[in-house]
Amino acid sequence: MAARRPLLRVLGLHGYRQNERVFRERTGALRKLLRGRMELVCVSAPLLILGPETQAELDPQPDEPRGWWFSNPQLQTFDALEETDSCQGLEDTLALLGQVFAEQGPFDGVLGFSQGAALGAILCALKQRGDSRFPFHFAILVAGFKSRSVEHQGYYQDLISVPTLHVYGKVDLVIPGDMSQKLASCFREPVILTHQGGHFLPASAAQKNIYCQFLDTFLK
């Protein structure tokens, strides 16, 4: 009987205004598509997004919307299109993820969506610089983009050699395809997967071969 090959453990980084539970639900089709290759471990971002309902909460609940950093520190909001001199929360996020890697790892890769994909790219840059908090081998970045915060531009100065699969929709109205293309251009040998849809994680038979070919590179 053939030995069962190990699953790749992948850390899931959700989009802005999502959380661990929501992201796990929205990756259900993708996890099913990649069953036998990948185990996805999701984690919630540390920043609570305040609104009419959450402002009155003294004890944040795990299902509330969260983010990885705010582009507007005063309003504590995020907009991928917003150019800003400063931001808030990334260091808290990196500290949390360092703890996740230490306590729940090891992880073979990261899978990020939207703001989570932008974060995944930053983790790749930090890994390349030798940041020992983030030992992983690859990243799948779906609907990703370069952060427009001046504070983050240093992450994109040098081409990043971490293997990446960049996925984006041709009619994505939230993160237009050219923003994902600009992020991919920051990597030395990016693999590109486009689909005909919008702002979501594609998981149809049409994309399966590309996902599997990419992941099989890292299966031992």
Largest sheet: 6 strands, parallel
Order of helices and strands: EHHEEEHEHEEHEH
The end-to-end span amounts to: 18 Å
Taken from the alpha-carbon principal axes, the silhouette is globular
CATH homologous superfamily classification: Alpha/Beta hydrolase fold, catalytic domain
CATH architecture name: 3-Layer(aba) Sandwich
Q: Which segments are poorly predicted (pLDDT under 50) over 5 or more consecutive residues?
A: 53-60
CATH topology: Rossmann fold
Q: How many distinct beta strands?
A: 8
pLDDT averaged residue by residue: 92
Radius of gyration: 17 Å
Total count of domains:
1
The proportion of strand residues reads 15-25%
Strand numbers in spatial order across the main sheet: 2-1-5-6-7-8
Alpha-beta content class: alpha/beta
Look at the structure and give the CATH class.
Answer: Alpha Beta
Give an account of the 3D structure.
There is one protein chain. By secondary structure, this protein is of the alpha/beta class. The chain has one domain (8-47, 62-216): Alpha/Beta hydrolase fold, catalytic domain (Rossmann fold). It is 28% helix and 17% strand. It contains six helices and eight strands, in the order βααβββαβαββαβα. It has helices at 20-26, 28-33, 90-104, 115-128, 177-184, 205-216, and strands at 8-13, 38-43, 47-48, 66-67, 109-113, 138-142, 164-169, 191-195. Strand 5, helix 4 and strand 6 form a beta-alpha-beta unit. The longest helix has 15 residues, at 90-104. It is globular and about 50 Å long.
